[in-house]
């Protein structure tokens, strides 16, 4: 049985009232770790990531009946995770009465004391470089560099053309390189 057939079957189970709970547990097992790291690359903190991941899965559970299958379920879930992450960062900025950029800076400064952060000085410097990018370039860079997503998958998730994504990634890589060489 190929992946597409499995996804169609899983979706049918998710949208049926009798198998929804079992199918949702399977969905959780399949995607929890990948979504965790996707969210973690955006919000940085382990604790914040757990909160956003939980909100993401609640939203997926509540809205699975509305999923029409226009894209892969995986892309749809990533889009929800991305939107939840950005909403979380914006709400945090509003709550702390600071800009989104300052929230990113705060998160990166807190990475050094985060017991779940296993990176070294180079990783920390890379995170600081990524934080200097505009939001869209950060997303594209993280998805390509850390998660090795194909441009076609990113296109489904971010609802942007592959050409625009390639350009964003190229620009992001150039800016990161410039940051790393000058700092």
Automatic annotation (TrEMBL):
UniProt-listed InterPro entries: RNA_pol_sigma-70-like, RNA_pol_sigma-70_dom, RNA_pol_sigma70_r2, RNA_pol_sigma70_r4_t2, RNA_pol_sigma_r2, RNA_pol_sigma_r3/r4-like, WH-like_DNA-bd_sf
Q: Which Pfam families match?
A: Sigma70_r2 (PF04542), Sigma70_r4_2 (PF08281)
What are the coiled-coil residue ranges?
A: none
The record's listing under PANTHER family reads: RNA POLYMERASE ECF-TYPE SIGMA FACTO, RNA POLYMERASE SIGMA FACTOR
Q: Which family does it belong to?
A: Belongs to the sigma-70 factor family. ECF subfamily.
Highest taxon above the source species: Bacteria
Q: Does the keyword Hydrolase apply?
A: no
User: Start and end of every RNA polymerase sigma-70 region domain?
Assistant: 29-94
Task: Tell me which species this is from.
Answer: Neotamlana sargassicola
Question: CDD domains, per this entry?
Answer: Sigma70_r4
- What keywords does the record list, in alphabetical order? Sigma factor, Transcription, Transcription regulation
**What biological-process GO terms show up in the record?**
DNA-templated transcription initiation
Provide the organism lineage as a comma list.
Bacteria, Pseudomonadati, Bacteroidota, Flavobacteriia, Flavobacteriales
Q: Where is the RNA polymerase sigma factor 70 region 4 type domain?
A: 124-176
Any idea what this protein is called? Answer: RNA polymerase sigma factor
Annotated GO molecular function terms are:
DNA binding; sigma factor activity
